[in-house]
Design brief:
Helix content: 25-40%
CATH topology: Rossmann fold
Shape: globular
CATH superfamily: Vaccinia Virus protein VP39
Structural class: alpha/beta
Number of domains: 1
CATH architecture: 3-Layer(aba) Sandwich
Length: 214
């Protein structure tokens, strides 16, 4: 069983196609289903090591875009020229420095982070990580930007969706096919960030960006 899990279809494909981890296909499938990264974008990947999502995001933004990664662990694999990655605590690293490296506010923030634990409190800790990311967004994400963050399903998952919906025009949960069947992981995919500077506009009746259909 262990060998089958380790050497599954996506593990083999990652080796063949040059990705550093099978998790690359999760972002590929999220992108195909939800279109959260576009040419010329600035993308921030929180918890980016070993670098699979950096590899996927790089060609999506193209040579005029930029991908910034941050993780406590270094990314050892060589990355394309439009990717920069840094070592540091996601919750302590200065947001202004990340934005400066990107050249402007980010169009998309990604997080494939998971708590460094397993067991009964894994779900609660993953929700806490997501809530911390939501608190960071005003300094990172531009108006109408997008967000993807991993969470483990459980009793607090609906509440996390509601909190995210207060900040975005469209929010849905999504589980890529590349996620293991036995995993409780889910991705919160959010479009059209209501940045703080828009609060006065919204109060005066300025319409939000229209939702797209699936």
């Amino acid at each position: 069983m262990g060998k089958r899990v380790l050497h599954d279809e996506y593990f083999r494909r990652a080796k063949q196609e040059g990705y550093v981890a099978r998790s690359a296909y999760k972002l590929i499938q999220i992108q195909e289903a939800r279109d959260i990264i576009r040419k010329g974008d600035r993308v921030l990947d929180l918890g980016c090591a070993p670098g699979a999502w950096l590899q996927v995001a790089s060609p999506l933004v193209g040579p005029r875009g930029r991908v910034i990664g941050l993780d406590l662990k270094p990314v050892k694999h060589r990355m394309p020229d439009n990717v920069r990655h840094f070592v540091g605590d996601v919750y302590e690293y200065p947001a202004a420095q990340l934005v400066e490296e990107a050249g402007r506010m980010f169009g998309t923030v990604l997080s494939d982070m998971a708590p460094n634990t397993t067991g009964f409190n894994e779900h609660e800790l993953s929700v806490r990580l997501c809530d911390q990311i939501l608190e960071m967004l005003p300094g990172l994400l531009r108006k109408n930007g997008h967000l993807v963050m991993k969470v483990f399903e459980g009793g607090e998952y609906p509440g996390l969706l509601r909190r995210t919906q207060r900040l975005f025009g469209k929010v849905k949960g999504y589980k890529p096919k590349a996620s293991r069947d036995v995993s409780r992981e889910m991705y919160v995919v959010a479009h059209y960030y209501r940045a703080p500077e828009r609060e006065a506009e919204s109060a005066s009746g300025t319409p939000d960006a229209p939702e797209t259909t699936d």
